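> @MW can you paste both from yesterday?
MW: sure, first one:
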Amino acid sequence: MVMAITASTAADTSLACVTLEVADPEAARRFYRAFGVDSYISLRASEAHSTGFRGFTLALTVSGPATVDGFVGAAVDAGATVLKPAAKSLWGYSGVVQAPDGTIWKIATSAKKDTGPATREIDQVVLLIGVESVKATKQLYVGRGLTVAKSFGGKYAEFAPGQSDRLTLALYKRRALAKDLGVPADGTGSHRIVLGGTADAFTDPDGFAWESAGSLASTPS
């Protein structure tokens, strides 16, 4: 997956788009169109080796349980595998699926009861990456120009969305993220994720690579 970020100044950097790296872009395109999230992502071909947990998830926040069920059902009908069936929890109602290309998606709502009919509307898309040290990675990203919107000690950090307000980047402990998704935390090879920004290329301590946003301009959708 590739993420591009934009910045009006060095101190105002934010996530702008997400590109998934997949083995079969055309098959993935059909899946994401059926799932209902194709307008939030782009795709490009990659044969990078990757096994186990890739260290990230994309999370959809929606209005209510019926809408969660609708997105989970659409994903399964299109070929996704259910990792955690949709169910109530302390925080609301959610389910987790894995796309045929291996990307894990969580669909969630803070509501435990529906106040209206199911919709196909998405309130927020959060790209959540699992890291060894939330505090250290947060400080690194702040130094690179991202603005922290929420922070809960060394457990979780969320950055301010960009001008499009379509995507949000957040950090979580890798093992805690894997547990939440219902998968083993172990994984090797490529994350299948690259963050693109205005800064020079670099790789963070967890192996998540950043590229110049300009180098992503020609990425096919």
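MW: second:
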Amino acid sequence: MKNRSLLCILSVLFSFSGIQAQTDSLSIQGKEGIETEIVEKDYEPYNALAPAKAAFYSAILPGLGQAYNGSYWKIPIAYGGLATGIYYYLENDKQYSKYRDAYKSRIAGREDQFNGKDERVFVSTDGLIRAQEVYQKNKEISLLVTVGVYILNIIDANVEAHLRQFNVDEDLTLQPNFDFNSLTGKTNYGLTLNFNF
């Protein structure tokens, strides 16, 4: 049973060891008739200022850093988050002003929209104070959400510009390893992770 499972594992490892990725290459014939192969890299060349540019562009105009990075699908998400935060801020500010004006009118002894002509009080004075506190708190939360989305927009542009330059090539390989131990007479099985500089 133990040998059967070991045999299955080895067959799986051997089947994956022959798999290789296709590379883009250009064959050039040298001076002496020897062909040399130039491998084209599929990542962008390193640009140390690209992350700073992307962050700066997003700070100037939200979504511009994403356009600089080529991620156009993120622009509506950034503007949707900013528009939602601004909408709720303005809506809560309008409600806060409505209850604040009613409270000022009631303190001054005038009629307000929550105290009708039939002397029936729809909202008490304490209710007006509590409503102002709730809408003031909601205004502050909406403002924090809007600023948070703006900052996340800048961070996203910066991080994506860093990751677009990340070097992913075939110098990193994972291969099965078989080592014969001469002291014990047994074979050691394992995986090796090779990184070529």
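> thanks! The chain has a mean pLDDT of 79.
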